[in-house]
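From the methods appendix. Each design record in this collection lists the tokenized structure first, followed by the designed amino acid sequence. Records were kept in a plain field format so they could be parsed without special tools. The example shown here is representative of the layout used throughout.

RECORD:
FOLD TOKENS (281 positions):
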């Protein structure tokens, strides 16, 4: 089973609660009855059949590692956004720069997603260009809907905090079935949006179609934010399992990358949603 988050596409974790990562088959040399038989990091220094050693003494990923690298990645996004907002006035040139920055960020993100090992340079480069893109579009929204970016930031923080609380409280169990159903819904959602984009481009759908700034657009935006929260639960689960099974410390960069991608998704959708509700005031 694959995660919805592409940065985890080459990693797999398994737990006794029935949730499995991407590599569910036991690796060669493992005992079938061993509770750690599916630990994907056992070949990186973990003795077969033994619990993971203490991360502090073995160079394995800890929550502190994830927090620090996430702060660096999100901080880079924030710095890029502030600089773009401050230095680039709203103009056709800024639109072109934002499009170019978004395209570069997408390419860097895809390159990192297909790499077997995390590259801090690629991840921070992605964050910087993503920040430029977000800075320009945030300024554009703010010029028409004053305060929309600030409200979107607060909304993103609220969604993230609520999702984390619900996850930690155990109200959501990230099982294989949960991940499969959610991922299928997400893929269908993206496919529908892609078709909608084509219809808009060819003039079949007017005023943005499903992405209009009316009630239908609000419904689609809410669905997108809910899917963003779903992605966050998968991210939390992958991080939790990575720490449990002794993932190498550099895997914290992948965790930071995945969280950043998800939070950017939620922020952009929240920005649109704030604009829609502002239109209806």
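DESIGN:
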């Amino acid at each position: 089973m694959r995660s919805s988050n592409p940065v985890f596409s080459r990693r797999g974790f398994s737990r006794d609660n029935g949730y499995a990562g991407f590599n569910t088959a036991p690796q060669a040399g493992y005992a079938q009855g061993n509770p750690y038989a599916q630990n994907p990091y056992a070949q990186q220094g973990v003795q077969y059949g033994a619990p993971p050693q203490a991360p502090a003494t073995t160079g394995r990923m800890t929550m502190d590692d994830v927090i620090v690298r996430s702060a660096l990645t999100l901080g880079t996004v924030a710095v890029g956004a502030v600089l773009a907002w401050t230095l680039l006035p709203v103009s056709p040139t800024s639109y072109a720069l934002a499009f170019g920055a978004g395209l570069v960020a997408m390419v860097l993100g895809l390159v990192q997603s297909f790499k077997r090992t995390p590259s801090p340079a690629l991840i921070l480069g992605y964050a910087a260009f993503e920040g430029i893109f977000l800075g320009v579009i945030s300024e554009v929204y703010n010029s028409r809907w004053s305060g929309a970016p600030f409200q979107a930031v607060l909304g993103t923080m609220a969604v993230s905090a609520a999702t984390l609380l619900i996850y930690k409280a155990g109200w959501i169990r990230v099982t294989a079935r949960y991940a499969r159903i959610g991922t299928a819904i997400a893929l269908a959602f993206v496919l529908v949006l892609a078709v909608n984009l084509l219809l808009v481009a060819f003039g079949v759908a007017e005023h943005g179609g499903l992405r209009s700034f009316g009630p239908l657009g609000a419904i689609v935006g809410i669905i997108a934010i809910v899917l963003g929260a779903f992605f966050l639960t998968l991210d939390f689960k992958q991080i939790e399992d990575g720490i449990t099974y002794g993932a190498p410390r550099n895997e914290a960069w992948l965790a930071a990358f995945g969280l950043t991608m998800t939070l950017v998704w939620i922020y952009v959708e929240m920005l649109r949603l704030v604009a829609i509700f502002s239109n209806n005031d």
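APPENDIX NOTE: The two ends are 44 Å apart (CA to CA).
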